[in-house]
Amino acid sequence: MISLDNLTVRFGGVTALDAISAHFTQSISGIIGPNGAGKTTTMNAISGFLDYDGAIAWNDEKIDALNPFKRTRWGLRRSFQKEQIADDLTVLDNLLAITDNLPLSRDEKRAEVEQAIESLAITRLVNRKADSLNAYEKRLTDLGRCIIGKPKIVMLDEPCGGLQQEETDHLGELILKIPTLTQATTLIIDHDVDLISRVCAETLVLDFGKRIAFGETAKVLADPKVKAAYLGVEEVEA
Amino acid sequence: MQITQIMQMTKSAKIGLLFALLAFTFLPVLAGGQWIKIFISTGCFILAASGVAFMYARLGMVSLGQVALMGIGGWVMLRMNHAFDLPFEINLAVAGAVTLVFGWLLAMPALKMRGLYLALITLMAAGGLEVIFSTYRFPNGGEGFWGVMPSVAAPFRRPLVATDDADYLRYIIFAIVVGFLIIELHMRAAPGRAWAMIRRSEAAAYASGVNVVYYKAWAFGLAGFLAGTSGGLLAGGLGLLDPATFRASESIMLFALMVVGGSRGWLGVVIAGVLYRVVPALFNDWTIDADIALVIFGAALLHAIITAPNGLSGQLIDLFGKVGKRT
Ligand SMILES: Nc1ncnc2c1ncn2[C@@H]1O[C@H](COP(=O)(O)OP(=O)(O)OP(=O)(O)O)[C@@H](O)[C@H]1O
Ligand SMILES: [Mg+2]
3-class SS at A77? Predict the structure, then answer.
């Protein structure tokens, strides 16, 4: 379970996140909202990339005191809206770049890397330089980095951004496997509502930094406030 | 699965070793008189350039203080040589270690900075060192801590295996190979991967669990170590050092020529060293004004920035690649 309690982030005078509270109890949950709603900012706060007020915990383990790289070592994994794998490294090295920094023995590290490669069936990519990968293969590598080393929290920021429908479907299948491969609680941001309804049991909806809905995905998507936010005609019904 | 590729040799490494072997065998025989001294100092600058090159290519960090750091290594080397009766290698190790620490000191203000600001900090440090070197000069066997005496210099002890110039040039070529191997081993292990993530973005590094400050400081330390040993080797080559060698402008020049040569492999660094030392000497030989070299370097830098992101070495490799395919 991931708990956000009164999560608040300000950029200068702008309140990008306004006292967001949500307790994600399901193994995979979604965060949706229009552009600029504060979705990525939420993940950046959970990653410790920016200063925030409020509290973040996983299964009652508070992580607020950890700096960003210690959060990764603790068990936080994430991918970025624009993939952030190292172009001049091979796929294997991109995976090792994480296990290098984990408190595991050599054998455990190797086992983690092998398991990630096997679970995603990316053996053929292992020795390819990342700059020779297509968008989908990069996303796969990103996902591999997220499931490695017994993660506790996995966060995917628009994992299917820029992918073909088929690729999105396949990646969705793989994301659904995360709970069987790891103990992690997973959060996904995406604009693809079909993907979110297929993969996420619970969903948080943000708009202008405020929580406008949270709960079972189907119910949330049916909420008039959510529909209004997406159509940009809120206040009309209010 | 091939996690143990750490010892695997790439094609570029094989060609590099072959090149080094040829240079090791023939260069000292073929080069005579003053040229052997020029190649010795070229070798020292190649080793130093490898430090800036890996910082630039692998971390995206611009360091404009490498030649100034060489000066520190050279100073320590001379100081040790004239104060104690220790073997050359121990003095060289001390020179490398002290400069490594200076690399760290330089890193401290720089760690929070990026891009242009980082470059400016290193340049300011180089400027400060320039003032110190020209004020206190280099030890030449005099009294006291600074060890400078006005006229002649006390003798410098070279390594036992390399007392004459020809053998000393071989010694330097060997040192360059060792230096390149140290960098290559880093690249293939955890530090290289951490650096690659840092270069991608700090967010990517944090998301990989990389302690960014620690690995940046490590890079500065390694570059400092390479600068220090190359400065120590230069001291051994010449027997005494001149403050003018380590001016801040020289650090900028070495960096610029590294960009011209290409930062991503051994060939670019070798080209940088040759442009830095051999070309001006050739011009001197042909009684062409040395300033012409500056103009040519400027044009080459523009060429590299505009059309050749991988430098001359990248273009050469592409060219050979094309020729290889045609035949
Ligand atoms: N580092 C920053 N400095 C200042 N403002 C920022 C910063 N990062 C984000 N913002 C602002 O905070 C708000 C929320 O941005 P965020 O990136 O979280 O949106 P998002 O929901 O992820 O949108 P998108 O769907 O476009 O990715 C935006 O108005 C954005 O301009
Ligand atoms: Mg976003």
Answer: strand
Q: How far apart are CA B55 and CA B259, in angstroms?
A: 12
Going from the C-alpha of B212 to that of each of A131, B98, B145, B195, B286, the distances in angstroms are: 23, 23, 37, 8, 49
Per-domain boundaries in chain B: 9-146+153-326
CA of A32 to the centre of ligand 1 (A): 13
> Which pLDDT band, with edges at 50, 70 and 90, does B296 fall under?
confident
Contacts of A34 (CB under 8 A, 6+ apart): A207, A229, A230, A232
Please tell me the CATH code under which domain A2-237 is placed.
Answer: 3.40.50.300
For residues A129 and A92, what is the distance between their CA atoms, to the nearest angstrom? 9
- Number of CB pairs < 8 Å for A and B? 87
Share of chain B above pLDDT 90, in %: 47
β-pair type (A202-207, A210-216): antiparallel
Measured between CB atoms, which of B3, B194, B206 is closest to A49?
B206
Which residues touch A31 (CB under 8 Å, ≥6 apart)?
A39, A42, A43, A187, A188, A189, A203, A204, A205, A206
- Tokens representing A225 are 């406030």
Whether the pLDDT of residue B314 is over 80: the answer is no
Q: Which CATH architecture is the domain B9-146+153-326 placed in?
A: Orthogonal Bundle (1.10)
What distance in angstroms lies between residue A35's CA and the mean position of ligand 1's atoms?
Answer: 8
pLDDT at residue B170 above 80?
yes
Given B1, B197, B211, which is nearest A97 (Cβ)?
B197
Of all residues in chain A, the one with the smallest CA distance to B1 is: A114
* Sheet of A76-79, strands arranged across: A76-79, A153-157, A185-189, A28-32, A202-207, A210-216
Q: How far apart are the first and last CA of chain A?
A: 32
Residues B100-148: tens digit of each pLDDT: 999 998 888 777 776 778 888 889 999 999 999 999 888 887 777 887 7
pLDDT of residue A45: 96
Q: Helix or strand or coil: residue B288?
A: coil
Which chain B residues touch A79 with a CB distance below 8 Å?
207
List helix spans (H) across A67-158: 68-74, 91-99, 106-120, 135-147
Q: What is the SS3 assignment for A154?
A: strand
Partners of B205 on chain A (C-beta within 8 Å) are: 69
Q: What's the mean pLDDT in A35-58?
A: 95
| Confidence band for B1, pLDDT divided at 50, 70 and 90 | very low
Residue among B200, B207, B212, B189 nearest A146 (CA): B207
| Identity of the highest mean pLDDT range in B24-38, B98-112, B169-183 | B169-183
Give the predicted TM-score (pTM) of the model: 0.90
In a 3-state reduction of DSSP, which class is residue B297? helix
d(CA B56, CA B59): 6
What are the residue ranges spanned by the domains of chain A?
2-237
